[in-house]
Amino acid sequence: KKIGLQFQGWEEYISKLDELGGSTTVKKAVEEALIESKKHVNPLIEKSMGKLPAGGRYSTGGTKESIDKENKVEWEGMTGSIKVGFDFSKSGIKSILLMQGTKVNGTPRMKPVSGLKSAIYGAKTQKEIAEIQEKVLSDVIKRVMEG
Question: pTM for the complete prediction?
Answer without folding.
Answer: 0.89
